[in-house]
Specification:
The protein is an alpha+beta fold. Helix content is about 40%, strand content about 15%. A hairpin with a 2-residue loop joins β2 (about 35-40) and β3 (about 40-45).
Length: about 90
Amino acid sequence: MNPDKVLIERFIKEECSTLSITDNPLAENLDGKLIQAGRGEVELSFRVDHSFTQGAGAIQGGIVATMLDFGLAFAALSVVDVTQSVA
């Protein structure tokens, strides 16, 4: 069973206000949090420290893409059965 799917199901069922994403090391390093979730939509937050920035202080493009990837995956997971996953 996908631990992120379990987190989303728990968030919706328990009507949580915020849950930390702790089953994925990269999401945890980005201090990822699930803020809102419903069928087909999620709101995530991340905190990016200096290790994810380039020399001029801007967030690296790959990290922005990673955060978008987390959002897309979590939104997709919110619509599949708990026994299913997405890739």
